[in-house]
Amino acid sequence: MHFRGFFCNFAFTLAIRKTITIILLCLIECTSGIYAISKREYNDSLVLNRMFGYKDSQHFEIRDSIINSYTLFTVSTQKKNKLLFTVPSMYVLARRSNTDYAGELYTKITLNSSDEIQTLKQVDVGTVPRHKNTLPTVMNMSMPNLYNVTLFRDHILSPFNAKNQILYRYGISYLTDNRAEVVFRPRKYNTQLVSGKAIIDIETGRIISFDFNGEYDMIRFDMNSTMGEEGFKSLIPKNLNINATFKYLGNVIKSNYHTEFGLPVTLPDSIEGSHEMALMDSLRPAPLPLHIQRLYDIQDSINHSRDTLPPRHKKKSIWKTIFWDAIGDNLVNRIKGNFGSNDQGYFRISPILNPLYFGYNPQKGFTYKSKLRVAYSFSPEKEIYLNARLGYTFKQKQFYFRVPIRYTYNKSRNGYVEVNIGNGNRIKNSTVRDRLKEEGQDSVVWSLTNLDYFKDMYTKITTNYDISDKWSIGGGMTYHRRSAVDGSVFKKADMPSTYYSLAPMIETQIRPWGWKGPIFTINYEQGIGGIGQANMEYGRIEADAIWLRKFNRLRSLSMRLGAGAYTNKGKDCYFLDYENFREDNMPGGWNDDWTGEFQILNRTYYNSSDYYVRANATYESPLMLMSRLPVVGKIMEMERIYVSSLLAHDLYPYTEWGYGFTNRLFSFGLFIATKNANYDGIGFRVGFELFNDW
After folding, report:
1. Which of 69, 159, 416, 572 is the most buried (most CB within 10 A)?
2. Long-range contacts of range 58-62, CB-CB < 8 Å, 24 or more positions apart?
3. How many CA atoms lie within 13 A of 317 on its CB side?
């Protein structure tokens, strides 16, 4: 019995020891696992931080560095219908029976230390009719700026920039001792983000290669590249492949672009836009693939047959070319060209039928605008520039135009003289009508007349000179001719239906923090009577402050604060027409056309108060409210919140609150107004964004 008890105690002790040993081993295993996980997380963070900081850590000298590139591309029409005619740059494909095209480009790329990229297309050959750039959006992606906030100009937030890492999820796999694969995908799927992967050098964080896909301006694309290896060339691709698909109302166009960077031959800048095949033959880094050579041979055969046509058929071909190519093409495409012995001049005309130039709001109905730019450079410091803007409102049946012609005599100091001719908004003023009533025109049915409205034609001459980066001074003269829309009653009352004003103006602009900070402007205008037909005497002073504050990830805050007043008014001064507080029929200058303006304010308030105080602010971000919704959020490119306030006669105050967004097709804004703390109305605006960069 004693022996049996001893054996049981001994067995029990062994069991306890074994259990304790197993527990200790488990604790050691768990601890080592936790240590391994912590070590893994530390390595992941280290790799990501090295990748984000690679460009800044290397201190490369990037000062006017030149890179030569060669691009071989194919464009294939998978599906096509008549609606393809409405797409800028696709006109030549829409009217041809061909389905496959190919071409080559030789381009000089200049990089500078401020991340600016300038390209010069020197040789352009291929089978695309008249060497048209059929997919300009894809060409805008031909040099991705990986380490910048955005990959392509102001589009697509880069997953390789530390400021954007909050928008992406990252996963890391270690391939070898010195290489890792970084996989990234958006936290919220949106057209401003991409998905893909990159191979990273663990020691330095250099991107060895990458492969990502996304959507940019109606183009679905897949892009892959092998990066350069040494010096500043490690910041740009060594080669780049882009597979892109464009789908539009039943049309499907597919394309492939392959680019080689760092070619040894540098052509002089005098060679630009050459279409010589012999020159491209000498530059091409590798023989053409057979399928592309076959397309070239077919095109050569067609050209040869066309050259041997009898004269009768040639005349028909010439007329067809003029009508379809010269006229039809320019209806939907930008018209542009250069002139001068050394191409020192250029002209740009916006497309005639491009939907981008249409807009809508309930007050004006549909509006249309167009642009014409012409410039000629006499020297690096001197040029003449015309920037005409035209518009028409279908509901109001009003044609607007603004034609400023500027001669710059000192570019470095922004010294210029400008002549601006145009017609302003139809100005409304009830003072003249009240004067007519006093004259005894009781037989007039006042509610059925347009006596409040006057057409406004003006000529404005201004000059400016920057004393320094922080101070400018300018002046000028403005002449207005305002004529009544309905002048019949004026004649009955023996009153003039046309009023003239002549006013010199002086202006100064102060920029305490340079051009990147707030800009303060003060101007004073004095109407002079008795010169020519001018019969209005007044004094007007205005002050304005604007600031466009940019933040990370394409976010920005636009602010405007201003005030104005008429210091004195003569007896016949019927019109209050401010410089900085008016209904702008052709807006522009901010990030969007609606920033810094009142959207649904009744137009009469612009000309009915001896004073005003205004404030406008717009905050914009690519990922804000609507972008978080499951379906529509994917196509939201930019969202904006608008806040505006106004103090004027009978407005204490007037406010507008608005929300707007932009996607690949259109811009939309919804606005709610209050007047003297009471609800005053709701309105909206629509602008078309289709093919904005085409």
Report:
1. 159
2. 58/204, 58/234, 60/231, 60/232, 60/235, 61/232, 62/111, 62/112, 62/113, 62/232, 62/235
3. 11
SS3 content of the chain, % helix, strand, coil (to 5): 25, 45, 30
At 607, the amino acid letter reads N
pLDDT tens sequence across 474-493: 999 999 998 887 777 677 66
pLDDT band for 226, please (50, 70, 90 cuts): very high
In DSSP notation, 158-175 reads -TTSGGGGGGEEEEEEE-
Q: How far apart are CA 250 and CA 86, in angstroms?
A: 13
Cβ burial 448-474 (10 Å sphere, 16+ → b, else e): ebebbbbbbebebbbbbebeeeeebeb
Mean pLDDT value across residues 96-115: 82
User: Could you count the other beta carbons within 10 Å of the beta carbon of residue 447?
Assistant: 5
Higher pLDDT, 566 or 531: 566
Collect all residues with Cβ–Cβ distance below 8 Å to 676 and sequence separation of at least 6: 651, 652, 653, 654
Token pair listed for 653: 């105050």
How far is the C-alpha of 686 from the C-alpha of 666, rounded, in Å? 7
514-543: average pLDDT: 89
**7 has pLDDT over 60:** no
DSSP 436-476: HHHTT-TTS-GGG--TTEEEEEEEEEEEEEEEETTEEEEEE
Tokens 């608008």 sit on residue: 642
Q: How far apart are CA 134 and CA 123, in angstroms?
A: 16
pLDDT tens column, 191-212: 889 999 999 999 999 999 999 9
- Is the CB of residue 75 less than 8 Å from the CB of residue 128? yes
How far apart are the C-alpha atoms of 581 and 481, rounded to whole Å?
Answer: 19
Q: Which residues contact 402 (CB under 8 A, 6 or more apart)?
A: 388, 389, 390, 420, 421, 422, 586
pTM: 0.77
Q: What is the pLDDT of residues 594-641, one digit of tens each?
A: 777 888 888 778 888 889 999 999 999 988 888 778 777 777 888 999
Q: Which residue has the tokens 């009781």?
A: 442
Structure tokens at 517: 């900070």
**Residue 5: is its pLDDT beyond 80?**
no
Name the token pair of 546: 């604007």
pLDDT digit string (tens) for 394-416? Answer: 877 788 889 999 999 999 999 99
DSSP 214-230: EEETTEEEEEEEEE--S
Type and span of the H or E element at 33: helix 2-52
Judge whether 141 and 218 are in contact, CB under 8 Å: no
Mean pLDDT over 235-243 rounds to: 93
Neighbours of 353 (CB within 10 A): 14
Round to whole Å and give the CA distance between 658 and 130. Answer: 46
Query: In this structure, what are the phi and psi dihedrals at residue 149, rounded to the nearest 5 degrees?
Result: -60, -40
The pLDDT of residue 430 is 56
- pLDDT confidence band for 247 (50 / 70 / 90): confident
Percentage of the chain lying above the pLDDT 70 cut: 78
Residue 636 — φ and ψ, nearest 5°?
-75, 120
What kind and span of H or E run contains 330? helix 329-332
Beta bridge partners of 125: 104
